[in-house]
Write a structure and sequence with these properties.
2 domains, Leucine-rich Repeat Variant
Length: about 240
């Protein structure tokens, strides 16, 4: 089955799109996605392949996740996301444990964003011990830090904002733009649930926040309020 999956991905590939994606996901020397290889397959097509091959054995999915090909890793994650959603408690636990032990292969922002809240966040929802997210937030690995904050999206969607705000605080001084964007995005989502919670956080920490983080966080604010924050940013 794995051989057929890889064949289908290549049948859906586009050289032109692959070149575009390699630029978009910063695969050049010294960039965050250095060395990543793209076939040029769209996410919807990758998802269709993932659903078709959802019965792939766990060892085969594990092997696929370790591929040098971006879309193969993406498809592996989409299979895990699907099987997590459909599986029982033991299957969810197995997928979660596998996911957090293999974060080094969840190594670009789309891979994180399409899986972190749906596996790590979903598994930890309702559980008291979420220490793994705080450990990931303090990792030297960019993608583990992004997993930590994006995983909390699941909590936000279920009315919980505490962990998002705590992890956001831990990441205030992060030096990477992709973390600034992710934290700002999650703060914006917090605001959809509780504008008061977001504004209280901003009031305390906006002077310490990178410009990109603030811009993402206040994107949905009324123009007057957004302009006031932007004015403060310019004066920093």
């Amino acid at each position: 089955m794995l051989k057929n999956l890889r064949k289908e991905l290549r049948n859906k590939a586009s050289l032109k799109k692959a070149k575009t994606l390699q630029g978009f996901f910063k695969t050049g020397v010294g960039q965050y996605g250095e060395g990543d290889i793209f076939l040029g397959v769209t996410v919807p097509d990758s998802r269709k392949v993932a659903i078709k091959y959802k019965e792939l054995s766990f060892p085969e999915v594990a092997g696929l996740l370790k591929s040098k090909i971006h879309e193969e890793r993406l498809t592996a994650l989409l299979i895990l996301v699907h099987n997590f959603k459909e599986g029982g408690e033991s299957e969810k636990e197995r997928i979660f444990n596998f996911y957090v032990k293999n974060t080094r292969f969840v190594n670009n922002w789309d891979l994180v964003d399409l899986s972190a809240d749906k596996i790590a966040g979903a598994y930890l929802l309702g559980k008291k011990d979420r220490e793994i997210l705080y450990k990931l937030a303090e990792s030297k690995n960019l993608w583990e830090r992004r997993i930590a904050i994006v995983a909390t999206f699941n909590f936000i969607k279920n009315g919980e904002t505490k962990d998002t705000l705590k992890i956001s605080k831990l990441l205030l001084s992060d030096d990477h733009d992709l973390i600034h964007k992710a934290v700002g995005w999650m703060l914006r989502e917090v605001g959809k649930h509780s504008l008061e919670a977001e504004e209280n956080f901003l009031e305390k920490y906006y002077k310490k926040m990178p410009r990109t983080m603030i811009r993402y966080a206040i994107e949905r604010f009324p123009e007057r309020k957004r302009s006031a924050y932007l004015k403060e940013i310019k004066s920093k």
